[in-house]
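Researcher: We plan to redesign the surface later, but first we want a full-length starting point. Tokens attached.
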């Protein structure tokens, strides 16, 4: 058994990680992949030569560079760690999906586009976590179909949300309830903080865990943005802050959806 290390400058988010996983799926020599998104590093555990692996990575145009190849003897130790990671990811997925429902309903009730957008952002994260978990054991085409379906659904929701936000900019609408904005976003912030604690506690360098930490850290900033918008609404009794934060988050979600669609269309 060997481990080959690659430096991949173009791998800066979990979507590139999933594209790489799909592209290498059919290579029977590969036993495991270990990603470190922050360091732009990939470790490939495999048998035999690494020529086909290197060629496939180079074809993705992420700037992959082979660093070194070493022999390993304790490969079996990886399996227990992967099982623990899956449990943590399921917990994070449940938290994100739950707050999508909570923030979505609260946003509709309080007339806050910021809360609706924040809820959709949580759903977008749940899509990515669920994609990785649900795709285990599926064929390559099934994984592509899952990615495309989730990406298009997410993009449709983001576009609809952005259109509604633009409509509210152009037509008179009620001022959102700042108490709901602040309180529900604060609860979502606590939920994301709990996710971040669980993920950091794992001290894992695996991509799923690193990706989840990146997503959750970004979500905390979004939660803070909605809270700030709620405070501005409180002080000014104007709706513009809520609409601005909503539009920004919808754009972020749409960008993520396009990346997931790219994943689904990537060549294996």
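Model: Full-length starting sequence:
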């Amino acid at each position: 058994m060997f481990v080959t290390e690659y430096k991949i400058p173009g791998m800066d988010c979990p979507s590139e990680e999933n594209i790489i996983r799909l592209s290498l799926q059919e290579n029977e020599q590969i036993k495991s992949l270990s990603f470190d998104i922050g360091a732009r590093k990939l470790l490939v555990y495999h048998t035999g030569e690494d020529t086909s692996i290197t060629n496939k990575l180079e074809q993705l145009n992420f700037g992959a560079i082979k660093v070194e190849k070493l022999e390993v003897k304790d490969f079996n130790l990886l399996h227990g760690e992967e099982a623990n990671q899956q449990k943590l990811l399921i917990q994070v997925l449940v938290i994100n999906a739950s707050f999508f429902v909570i923030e979505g309903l609260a946003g509709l009730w309080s007339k806050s586009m910021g809360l609706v957008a924040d809820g959709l952002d949580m759903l977008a994260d749940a899509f990515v976590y669920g994609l990785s978990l649900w795709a285990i054991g599926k064929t390559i085409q099934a994984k592509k179909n899952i990615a495309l379906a989730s990406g298009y659904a997410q993009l449709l929701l983001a576009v609809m949300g952005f259109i509604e936000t633009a409509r509210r900019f152009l037509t008179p609408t009620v001022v959102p309830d700042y108490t709901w904005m602040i309180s529900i976003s604060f609860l979502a912030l606590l939920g994301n903080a709990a996710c971040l604690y669980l993920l950091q506690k794992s001290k894992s360098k695996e991509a799923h865990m690193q990706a989840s930490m990146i997503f959750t850290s970004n979500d905390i900033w979004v939660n803070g943005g909605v809270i700030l918008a709620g405070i501005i609404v409180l002080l000014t009794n104007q709706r513009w802050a809520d609409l601005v934060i909503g539009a920004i988050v919808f754009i972020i979600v749409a960008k993520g959806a396009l990346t997931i669609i790219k994943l689904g269309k990537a060549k294996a």
